[in-house]
Amino acid sequence: MTQSNKRVVVQEVGLRDGLQSLSQVMATDAKKRWITAAYEAGVRYIEVASFVPPKLLPQMADAAEVVAHALTLPDLVVTALVPNLKGAENALTAGAHRIVAPISVSEKHSLANVRKTPDAMIEEFARIRHLRDSKSAWRNVTLIGGLSTVFGCTLQGYVLESDVVRIALATIEAGADVVALGDTTGHATPAHVGRLLDQLLPVAQGKVTSLHFHDTRGLALANTVVALDHGIREFDASLAGIGGCPNAPGATGNVATEDLVYMLHAMGYETGIDIASLLDIRDTLTDALPQAPLYGYIAREGIFVGSVPTQLSARGVQS
Amino acid sequence: MTQSNKRVVVQEVGLRDGLQSLSQVMATDAKKRWITAAYEAGVRYIEVASFVPPKLLPQMADAAEVVAHALTLPDLVVTALVPNLKGAENALTAGAHRIVAPISVSEKHSLANVRKTPDAMIEEFARIRHLRDSKSAWRNVTLIGGLSTVFGCTLQGYVLESDVVRIALATIEAGADVVALGDTTGHATPAHVGRLLDQLLPVAQGKVTSLHFHDTRGLALANTVVALDHGIREFDASLAGIGGCPNAPGATGNVATEDLVYMLHAMGYETGIDIASLLDIRDTLTDALPQAPLYGYIAREGIFVGSVPTQLSARGVQS
After folding, report:
1. pLDDT at residue number A3
2. Is residue A280 part of a domain?
3. Which residues from A are below 8 Å from B266, CB to CB?
4. What's the pLDDT at B4?
5. How distant is the Cα of B226 from the closest Cα of chain A, in angstroms?
6. The predicted structure's pLDDT at residue A311
7. Which helix or strand (DSSP H or E) is residue A22 part of?
8. How many domains does chain B have?
9. Which DSSP helix (H) or strand (E) runs through B89?
10. Is B230 inside any structural domain?
11. Distance (Å) from the C-alpha of residue A223 to the closest C-alpha of chain B?
12. CA pair distance B54, B57, nearest whole angstrom
């Protein structure tokens, strides 16, 4: 690996994808503490909130305040999810550096999630792009098409790879700076990831750069290995894997940030993140969300410093 | 992948590696039911027992009877672990098709496990080989050097890759037909697996063919992806991941057989194993070992038939 090729961005999405599935609302102060602690642990990309109507998702009612706090931290790249044009306007006004709009490849999921077909959502995405371009202050904001249900869908089942390619290209055509592929429902397998990236990367104009795995079937890290082999260098993760289905104990959601970082460092990648500091933040979660189960292997087993002596380093293995 | 290249052997080791760490002794009849049910699910390689002194490990006091039962099942390849020459004699007398002797690369672990240094254990291995060769009826028995603590050791910490190579070659020199690499303590990471196989395979005369991962840090399946890429086609696994440390709830041991088979089928590999039938065997474990926690993602989440429609097939994906 070359020096630049070793750098991997790990975006913390626990504050958005993790919290949104919990019924217990996390206090705004606790969210701020979490963001600051993650920043101090070396995290430089955080998806901090979702700009949805507070009536629909009380957990995100403080989105603008949370973004404002995150913006006080130098060099932190602040991402916000926006389900529609109104949300995008609010996120842009709040000052988010990156906004991500969810575009489900599964029509059933898209209708359930944003009450629009995938094609209608791409039209909304184009409107969001025009809004972003309408003010000079917003033009530096990165627009991410967050493709969801890319590897399967609990509502629809099978998701055609050709549909993923079609929607990814349409999203790029509509103005996406980045297309992120989300395994929203934990269906991805290593071969599926490889097959899809083999089809998509040659035609995606360098814009498919970020992947988002759930550990529902224990394959998030195996899938990550395949994505790394395909040159992907940005991954979402959620501290302590929070956000698993509250009705299925043990059913994890996003892959745990600390487990992902552990594997990346052990593989010689650099994340800039200190795992021990990440682990300390779990106490903040326990205090703020006493009912939320916390997941993660490394928290239980500890960091093994035997085979990769420098993996505790914030810069990963120096090889 | 070519047709033959798609075939992967999954050896069930729950009856040996799984049970040996449980204090509750499984009744012999339950072991027989498990073996028969695994066989009916398509499993054709089972490590059924360990020939150790019953005083040391009451769980394995019925080893000869369990082997005798396994031998009644046509085409089942019956493996037994033997810690020394006496155990090898008993296993050979019982009729095991393959015997595996554990050779720890970590000296501390070797002394704790078999009260011999690694080099002394290799000498014992050579004696086992001579015993095997001493009777014509035994000469077809496959002799496996089961290298343990290959990727790290809880007692010693760091395990030198050069030590692994040295001991693997000495084990081959001492007469091993197969060298299996065991991540006894769950320390392996994907890069470590790749690095070690890159060093070992070119010099191992085709004898390093089997890997044994523990899921202690959630990396067993990620490690398996790397090993598959290196051409490894035999893996150990334990139904329901039994055998995790009884003092650390949630700390899994061997990777769960059903999770491994699920990933392999989803990757287009053929195992001959039917996952739904495997999942049914978990009830046998619950009945026989009510105190033993069962692990595994697929048991909780179900088999996803969306993205890989034929993965339920006993022969895997027909592509």
Report:
1. 63
2. yes
3. 189-192
4. 73
5. 8
6. 33
7. none
8. 1
9. helix B85-94
10. yes
11. 7
12. 5
Residues in chain B closer than 8 A to A300 (CB atoms) = 248, 250-251
Quote the tokens at residue A269: 């990648």
Spell out the residues 6+ positions from residue B56 whose beta carbon is closer than 8 angstroms to its own: none
Among the partner residues A157, A226, A300, nearest to B306 by beta-carbon distance: A157
pLDDT of residue A196: 97
Distance, in Å, from the CA atom of B278 to the CA atom of B259, rounded to the nearest integer, reads: 10
In 3-state terms, what secondary structure has residue A18? helix
Catalytic residue among A1, A160, A191, A245: A245
Contact B218 A218 (CB under 8 A): yes
pLDDT of residue B74: 98
| Start-to-end Cα distance in chain A | 9
CB-based contact B148:B104 (threshold 8 Å) = yes
pLDDT band at B317 (very low <50, low <70, confident <90, very high): very low
Confidence (pLDDT) at A2: 64
Q: State both tokens at A163.
A: 């549909």
Q: What is the pLDDT of residue B168?
A: 98
A239 belongs to a structural domain: yes
One-letter-per-residue 3-state SS of chain A: CCCHHHECEEEECHHHHHHHHCCCCCCHHHHHHHHHHHHHCCCCEEEEEECCCCCCCHHHCCHHHHHHHHCCCCCCEEEEECCCHHHHHHHHHHCCCEEEEEEECCHHHHHHHHCCCHHHHHHHHHHHHHHHHHCHHHCCCEEEEEEECCCCECCCECCCHHHHHHHHHHHHHCCCCEEEEECCCCCCCHHHHHHHHHHHHHHCCCCEEEEECECCCCCHHHHHHHHHHCCCCEEEEEHHHCCCCCCCCCCCCECEHHHHHHHHHHCCCECCCCHHHHHHHHHHHHHHCCCCCCCCHHHHHCCCCCCCCCCCCCCCCCC
How many C-beta neighbours within 10 Å does residue B237 have? 28
Using CB atoms, pick whichever of B187, B248, B267 lies closest to residue A189.
B267
**A245 is known as an active-site residue:** yes
User: Does residue A222 contact residue A190 with C-beta atoms inside 8 Å?
Assistant: yes
Write down the residue that tokens 């086609």 correspond to. B233
**Strand (E) or helix (H) holding A225:** helix A220-229
- Give this prediction's pTM: 0.88
> Nearest Cα to B255, choosing from B2, B11, B4?
B11
Considering the domain boundaries, does residue A184 fall inside one? yes
Q: What confidence category does residue A247 fall into, taking pLDDT thresholds of 50, 70 and 90?
A: low
State ipTM: 0.81
Judge whether residue B305 has pLDDT over 70: no
Q: Are A97 and A141 in contact (CB under 8 A)?
A: yes
What number is the average pLDDT over the span A195-219? 96
For chain B, give the number of residues. 319
Query: pLDDT tens for residues B17-48?
Result: 999 888 899 999 999 999 999 999 999 999 99
Containing domain of residue A37, as a range? 4-301
> What's the number of CA atoms in the CB half-sphere (13 Å) around residue A197?
25
Q: Determine whether the interchain pair A259/B306 forms a contact, defined as Cβ–Cβ distance below 8 Å.
A: no
A5: Cβ–Cβ under 8 A, 6 or more apart, which residues?
Answer: A233
- The Cα-based distances of A167 to A120, A163, B250, B318 in angstroms read 11, 6, 40, 28
CATH number for position A163? 3.20.20.70
Helix (H, G, I), strand (E, B) or coil at A80: strand
Closest chain A C-alpha to B155 CA, distance in angstroms: 10
